[in-house]
């Protein structure tokens, strides 16, 4: 199975998927919009929001013939901007781009929750589980008060930063038996 990226209007990704499914109910391939849960504090209240990990992008997992058979329907659906690499050079995700997208699609699931982390003696983040597991090298900044880690993601030679939530746990103390 190949994975393709489609750029759509930001904050209308779910609407785009609904409109496309209505246009092509026979299209059986997977369409993914990975999301993340994050706590926001406004006016003293903490609310949980679900936002896109890759704002403005959806990912289609399909065989090439099925994907290109629906090519024009993707383009005609309201909110479409372009295929990646470009509309004239549509390519499946490969290499690091594919690994990154599959990390969120396969390992994390449709909505990335909070990661469980602790800080070692050098104040470095050690991820125990959650969406940050395997992305430790991409962490740019940690905000302990907000419980967020800013990570840098690269997709098709484009870099952007997102925040992922975490909760701090106490590491298990190793016992020394004398």
Describe this structure in words.
With about 180 residues, the protein is α+β, with helices and mostly antiparallel strands. It has one domain (about 1-170): Alpha-Beta Plaits. It contains four helices and twelve strands; from the N terminus they run βαββββααβαββββββ. The chain has helices spanning about 15-25, 65-70, 70-75, 95-110, and strands at about 1-10, 30, 35-40, 45-50, 55-60, 80-85, 110, 115-120, 125-130, 140-145, 150-155, 160-170. The mean pLDDT is about 90.
Q: How does the overall form come out from the CA principal axes?
A: elongated
What is the CATH fold-level name? Alpha-Beta Plaits
Number of strands: 12
- What is the oligomeric state here? single chain
Number of helices: 4
Question: Which segments are poorly predicted (pLDDT under 50) over 5 or more consecutive residues?
Answer: none
From the alpha carbons, calculate the radius of gyration and give it in angstroms. 19 Å
């Amino acid at each position: 199975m190949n994975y393709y990226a489609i750029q759509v209007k930001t904050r209308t990704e779910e609407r785009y998927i609904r409109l496309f499914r209505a246009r092509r109910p026979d299209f059986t391939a997977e369409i993914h919009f990975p999301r993340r849960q994050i706590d926001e504090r406004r006016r003293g209240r903490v609310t949980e929001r679900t936002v896109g990990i890759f704002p403005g992008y959806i990912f289609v997992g399909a065989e090439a013939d099925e994907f290109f058979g629906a090519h024009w329907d993707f383009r005609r659906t309201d909110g479409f901007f372009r295929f990646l690499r470009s509309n004239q050079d549509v390519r499946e995700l490969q290499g690091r781009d594919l690994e990154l997208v599959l990390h969120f699609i396969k390992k994390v699931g449709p909505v990335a929750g909070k990661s469980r982390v602790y800080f070692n003696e050098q104040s470095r983040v050690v991820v125990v589980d959650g969406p940050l597991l395997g992305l430790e090298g991409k962490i740019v900044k940690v905000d302990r008060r907000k419980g967020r880690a800013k990570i840098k993601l690269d997709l098709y030679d484009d870099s952007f930063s997102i925040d992922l939530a975490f909760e701090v746990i106490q590491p298990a103390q190793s016992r020394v038996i004398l």
